Amino acid sequence: MKKLVFVLFLLTSLLSCKDKKAGNIIPRDVFVDMLVDIHLADADYSMNSSKFKFHTDSANFYNDIFVKYGYDRASFDTTARYYSRHLKEFDDLYDDVVTDLNKMDQEVMQMRPYETVPSSNLYKGRKQWSLPKDGPTRMIPFSVRIKDTATYYVSVQLKLLPKDETKNPRLMVFFWYNDGSKEGYRDKFPEVAYKKTSWSVVYTTSLKLKNKKVTHIKGFVLDDDNGDNKHPKYVEIKNIVVSSSRN
């Protein structure tokens, strides 16, 4: 069903295109990434349609995606036209799109903003940041005291702007207790890589606590591999949530 809907989107793109000039065919791997971003943008639109009320033309609505990958609408439509005539190739290509989207699901990337911070939020610190306004090199460390054996979730609603120069930006979280070593005992959660978008994304990582010696969840909301202060960060963070479940 999802594939059929997207085929209809491609055909609509062709029929509604106002500029009939030919463009270059976009490389397959790049086109897959563009279609993934278009799906994510559509998800954002469906949940926040009021903020897009002035985008009546899809050429405008997807313009940030075209700019991000260095192509224009004409090239996108030329590529869509090519795949509309080679449906077997489109099937194979779209399988890759679905695989990438499923991988994002497995990484627990959820396309939904928090309307309110849950009352069960264990994190009581500052929850909103705007970089570089609030400090161009901040990694934003956090620490939450815990005591129950449970599965813990850490979520961050974040927008990593296209002009951000951070190397490998990610959410880094670990269980911690003082074992006498320099860094203390650490049991790391799965790291979650941030992606450059023009909209906010909720990134979540989780891990079951088994070691009863653990006293804290710690980490960095914006870990990176920069190694210096020469890479400006352009990031908007709206919510930080730490929660738990005994299920």
Q: Can you describe this structure?
A:
By secondary structure, the chain is of the alpha+beta class. The chain has 2 domains: 2-106, no CATH class; 129-245, Jelly Rolls. 32% of the residues lie in helices and 25% in strands. The strands form 2 sheets. A 5-stranded antiparallel sheet has the order 1-8-4-10-2. Strands 3, 5, 6, 7 and 9 form a 5-stranded antiparallel sheet that branches. Strand 5 and strand 6 form a beta hairpin. Helix 2 packs across helix 6 (87-106). It starts with a helix and ends with a strand. Residues 108-117 have low confidence and may be disordered.
Show the helix and strand layout.
Layout: H1 2-16, H2 28-47, H3 58-61, H4 63-69, H5 73-84, H6 87-106, E1 109-110, E2 129-131, E3 141-145, E4 151-160, E5 170-177, E6 185-188, E7 192-193, E8 201-208, E9 216-223, E10 235-245
Antiparallel strand pairs: 1-8, 2-10, 3-9, 4-8, 4-10, 5-6, 5-7, 5-9
Summarize the structure.
This protein has helices at 2-16, 28-47, 58-61, 63-69, 73-84, 87-106; strands at residues 109-110, 129-131, 141-145, 151-160, 170-177, 185-188, 192-193, 201-208, 216-223, 235-245. With 247 residues, it is an alpha+beta fold.
